[in-house]
Amino acid sequence: xxxxxIIAFIVGGLxxxxxxxxxxxxxxxxxxTLSLLVIVGSILDGFGLxxxxxxxxxxxxxxxxxxxxxxxxxxxxxxxxxxxxxxxxTGMFEVTSSGISAAILFGVIGALIFKPKGNV
Amino acid sequence: xxxxxxxxxxxxxxxIVSTAIAAxxxxxxxxxxSYFDIIYExxxxxxxTNEKGHAQFIEDTCTLAVRKAGLQKSDIDVLLSxxxxxxxxPTNFAARELAIPFMxxxxxxxxxxxxxxxxxxxxxxxxxxxxxxGSSSQHNAVERQFRYPIEYxxxxxxxxxxxxxAAGFGVLSHAQEDRPYVKSATIGKVxxxxxxxxxxxxxxxxPAAFDTIQSHLQENKDExxxxxxxxxxLGKTGFAILKELMKKxxxxxxxxxxxxxxxxxxxxxxxxxKSGASGAGCSASVFYGPIYxxxxxxxxxxxxxxxxxxxxxxxxxQQGETIPCIAHAVEIWID
Amino acid sequence: MxxxxxxxxxxxxxxxxxxxxxxFAAFFVGGIFCAIGQIFSYLYMYFFNFTERTASNPTVxxxxxxxxxxxxFGLYKKIGQFAGAGSAVPVTGFGNAVIxxxxxxxxxxxxxxxxxxxxxxxxxxxxxxxxxxFVVALIKTILVKMGVIAW
Lengths: 120, 335, 151
Hints:
heterotrimer, B: alpha/beta, Peroxisomal Thiolase, Chain A, domain 1, 2 domains, 6-stranded mixed sheet, C: mainly alpha
């Protein structure tokens, strides 16, 4: 377990370094950078590379935002394999719901409980 | 042009008879905090929203400025003010409570001086007796409108600035002995050097400050020297660029004892504020607070206030536009 | 002063972003978020019978919950200022984008404020994630049906 945690640390850190270079060198906004990384995750799953990447790096591959792209594509491909072209549409949110649902749920709960503070 | 000169001269010496400054809790960390009349404990002034709090402290500051002038609200002919929020609603709502005839003014962060210049023209014309002028900003309201929700973990670059929560207002009347008066002014032109980064306002505004300063100082270069030329919120980055522009053009050889920038100094050297302070309240609180105080006590006798503003909107940035900027200058003397 | 001759002055004087320091900070903090995620994955696998591949679902939800706490207590923005992409790229950054917008816009009410503005910052991630998944899956499905590649 310790080894896999260290691998997760290193791989996740490296993906974040790529993001930081997109911020500082390419001067992209966070929205542009994250959208780009999601698309990269999606393309990697198209080539069948992301699932083995998860097997190797565990949370180092599932925690970064790239895994959203992977889950969406993976769900679409799984359904397409079963049901043909229509599966491309129906399969997408099958596997990804947790991240987005959690964000919405905790967004509403957060808005109930918290108030923003302008401290530096 | 009436006089073939870009500079306006005021022969009747409209005098700034009183000023009032208010600031938020974070501004206790300002090097100027001892000059602020009111410092609030709550950044929303105990109101429900940032915008309501913004309106509240504008109202409080205006009321105090009028009181310090020994006047009633009914003595004020017009309130000239604005802020950075869409359609200047905090100022509009404050004006509703104050029940003074009101003309909203927008020059982004340069509103502190644009309102004073307009007030001076009104007093000079002798159509008015007392004009209330000034500007303000509230950090949370400005950040969420122009940049991000305030709890969002965006990374500010080293040339970024912090919008202050502050208001600075003054009452302008006819000439009064022992009060600082407006000698002349230069209204800025919009200058656009095609800067596009909304996180780097200093670089965008420095050319506008340079244009106005160069124009005003050129007209006065045979006069006695200025004790101080102080810009509004170029920040450490923008101020360094301004100094470079002045050096390159020879303007730095004009008779000025000292150049300063309110934004660069506002929070001292605390690194979490990056390049310094910005916002319509920054120039207003510093010009009409500590600097006005120094002129009143005759430590400074001839000062040029140059407030700078970036005339962009969140939409213009998203549409890929550049950031046009403006700087207005007003010269304050005391006899 | 024209734009062409002005830009070199800005480039010379404006402080540069500390790219190397930012990359180290991003690596460190991003790595820690992923390491925490790995530990939660193990907890879910051993105590709740998730497999290695399905453990990512509750893990991601837990990370977003942590993001809510950090955002609500005003800590996420401090982490963000230090770590940059190290806090934006992990799914906690997505959570922070959604939750900070929700908290901020409560002043406009629950429907027009919280509801409409929640995805102000994070919406493009979902939009382009879905769109890209559609294009990639469509292309791959066409290629499979044409017999060029296998699933």
